[in-house]
Amino acid sequence: MSTTTKPRHIGRNISRIRELKGMKQEALAIAIGVSQQSVSNWEASETIEQEKLIQIAKALGVTIEAIENFSEESVFNFFNNFYDNSANNGAQGSGNTNNSCTFNPLDKVVELYERLVQAEKDKNEYLEKLLNGK
């Protein structure tokens, strides 16, 4: 039984990162300027040229190292730690979950409604002018 570690499958890592980001092969292909078939071929390859890897990493919004060292365990650890920290520290991580507005939201709704009504009145006046002008 061998204890040597199997080399990382770069294509599989690209596929998993792309899927985690909710991106389809077509979207990645468009972002790089290649065909969807090229992306499919890359994801099936164990190794990828460095220049292509740079383009892929840029399109996915990650570093080359993130692609090369990607593992499912690290993703789960990240999300578990993120969830634990956000649950303990509040949404902003400040420890203060008291979210208070500096304005009355109802006033903003009323203001928006009044602006919409005024826009409709202005539109009606304009249409009436057009009809009377003929």
Automatic annotation (TrEMBL):
Family matches, as InterPro entries: Cro/C1-type_HTH, Lambda_DNA-bd_dom_sf
Sorted UniProt keywords: DNA-binding
Keyword Protein transport in annotation: no
Gene3D superfamilies: lambda repressor-like DNA-binding domains
A matching Pfam family: HTH_3
Ranges of residues in domain HTH cro/C1-type: 14-67
Keyword DNA-binding: yes
Protein name: Helix-turn-helix transcriptional regulator
Species this protein is from: Flavobacterium artemisiae
Highest classification ranks of the organism: Bacteria, Pseudomonadati, Bacteroidota, Flavobacteriia, Flavobacteriales
